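Fold these two proteins, one after the other.
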Amino acid sequence: MKSYKFVFFVLIVLVLGGFVVLKYIEMPAPHKVQIKILDVNDDAVK
């Protein structure tokens, strides 16, 4: 029974840690991402 409690505790810590990492990663909002269409004949691409 003691090993199940240890595994459960480790699992809870990993889930909470993953949530914190995903919550505070610098991810821009989808409407703020700039999509630039590349033209083959554009001088800025060359």
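Now the second one:
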Amino acid sequence: MIKRRVTELNAVLADWDEAKLPNGQDKYFSVAFVSKKGEFRFVKRGRKTGLRMHMKDNDMKAVQPVDTDGMDIGHVYPVWIHSIIFYSGNVVMNLLKNGN
């Protein structure tokens, strides 16, 4: 049986917002979420990107799938933050702490 850690949504959002590692390289992560159409989506390796909307007002993030060399593959997925199930191998508890 695989043991997974439970991560709070605030920690996921803070980690997602860091686009670069301390050495200047792009930061990659995996994410599983439910799309607007109710489909389960899993991005094995992706990076932070933007959308043509005010993402904070709409509680949205965006992920661009990439290959092992960091080249874009597929299209950008919009992600409603409350639909995130797994982030970098951890189960996400979709509750925000007070103040956010």
